[in-house]
Every structure is written in structure tokens, then in C-alpha cells.
Amino acid sequence: MKLAKKKRFWNTVDVAEAESGFVIQLDGRTVKTPEKRDLLLPTRKAAELVAQEWDDTSGELDPTAMPATRWANVSVDKMGGQMAAVVDMLAAYGENDLLCYRATHPQELIARQAAFWDAPLQWASQTFEAPLLVTSGVIPVEQPNQSVANLRQAVETFDPFELAAFHDLVQISGSLVLALAVARQHMVAEQAWDVARVDENWQIEHWGVDDEAAEAAELKRQAFLLSEELLLSVRKTLH
Q1: CA-to-CA distance for 194 and 220, rounded, in angstroms?
Q2: Dihedral sign of CA atoms 165, 171, 173, 178 in order
Q3: Is the dihedral of CA 15, 16, 22, 28 positive or negative?
Q4: pLDDT tens for residues 95-117?
Q5: Which pLDDT tens digit goes with each residue over 161-189?
Q6: Which residues are registered as beta bridge partners of 15?
Q7: Which of 73, 121, 136, 172 is the most exposed place for a label (fewest CB within 10 A)?
Q8: How would you class 141 by CB atoms within 10 Å of its CB: exposed for 0-12, middle for 13-18, buried for 19 or more?
Q9: Residue 182 burial (CB < 10 Å; 0-12/13-18/19+)?
Q10: Which of 98, 107, 165, 109 is nearest to 138 (CA)?
């Protein structure tokens, strides 16, 4: 986004229906992407989320405070020509999913990982016919080719807007399985976040809170929850 050091220059923010979606208008003028395309959203809900960021802006524009706008810009400008590459990159998480790598000790942590992580893996196995192998330690385990392929097929169902939001669900959590569970509404993002944070939460319980790490984790949590909201905002049918 080329918004840095620009100040608010508009008075009104509106969502307007266009021929194939919805646009955001500032004083009646349609917002453009960095590549000068109309910032066209597929649903009114998605457009309203983006419009709210523009309406909340006062003083200088801060791109870091406008994540929905950044997501929309990426979806319109970048995703169309990079879909296959993004699908490949996200599907690769299925080969090394967070949920498959378990602690070797202590027993308390091993039990907690199993309690939180076995169920999502079982869901993925049943839903996508994609059983994944579990291992202890960090040495990579080779996953069944058909399981990886089936998970990739699930990722291929997303349109550019969904895929841009799904990208963040995967990268923030480190788990393709958890991201798919959120996307399929099998699990809400808040629950998936807690599941992804089993190791970190165990460390906090035993060693205390590191303020800097906690602040960084909260930013990631907020981004994770927003990614779910953005993905669902463009959802017309349940995949």
C-alpha cells in the first residue's frame, strides 16, 4: 500500500454496489488498489470491513492499522496471477504440520498435545481422507502422498479473496489442518488459536510470562481472528 505519510483528505466513506461486487467510495470517488484497479470486493460484508478502516482513519494514513485493506489489495492485485504458487506453498504445510510433531518429554506436555491435537488430525483424516503420521521430536516424518494431495485439493477450492485470508490462518498457526478446520467452520479461530498455542501456553504455566513475547503473541492472535472474519466475509457457500 502506498499510503504512508498521506493524510486523511475525505469526509465521507460509503460502500457502493458495482457491476460485479462492491466498492468503497471516499467523497464519492472509488478507492483504488496500489496497481490502480478498483478495490472491488465480492460481498457487501467484506466491503464494509474495509470501509470501516477508512472511516476510522484520522490524521496520517497508517497501512499497518488497515489490515483488511491490505488483504483486499493483495486479493485484487496479486492473488489472481499467483494462485497456483500460493496453493503449493500452503499445501506444503501438510507435509510438516505443527500437530504432527510431538514432545519427547515431559509426560504432562505429551498428554496435553495429544488431548488438543489428536482430534483435529482425526477430523482431517475423516473429512479429506487425509490421515497424517505423528512423530516425537523434530526429525521430519514423510506423510502419505495421497493425504498431502487431498489436503492440497481442499486448498484449491478457495477463490483469491478466501486464499489471501487462508494464507494468514496457515502461516500464523503453523498448521494447515487447523486453518482448514477454521475455514470449514469446524472450529472457530479463537479455539484454533488455543490449540496452536499448546506448547507456548505450557511454557508460560511453568516459566512465567515474558511481556515482550506476550505482546507479540497478542498481535498474532488478533491477526488470526481477523483472518477468519475476512475469509467468512467473502464466503457465499460453505466449501
Answers
A1: 12
A2: positive
A3: negative
A4: 999 999 999 999 999 999 999 99
A5: 999 999 999 999 999 999 999 999 999 99
A6: 24
A7: 136
A8: middle
A9: buried
A10: 98
In the numeric block, the cell 477430523 is attached to 123
With 60 as the cut, is the pLDDT of residue 199 above it? yes
Q: Write out 166-217 in H/E/C secondary structure.
A: HHHHHHHHCCHHHHHHHHCCCCCHHHHHHHHCHHHHHHHHHHCCCHHHHHHH
Cβ distance 43 to 234 under 8 Å?
yes
* Burial call 89-121: b when 16+ CB within 10 Å, e when fewer: ebbebbbbbbbbbbbeeeeebeebbeebbeebb
Is the Cβ–Cβ distance between 31 and 25 less than 8 Å? Answer: yes
pTM of the model: 0.93
Whether 8 and 57 have beta carbons less than 8 Å apart is answered as: yes
Residue 237 pLDDT > 80:
no
> CA-to-CA distance for 237 and 134, rounded, in angstroms?
32
Query: Of 177, 169, 77, 202, which Cα lies nearest the Cα of 120?
Result: 177
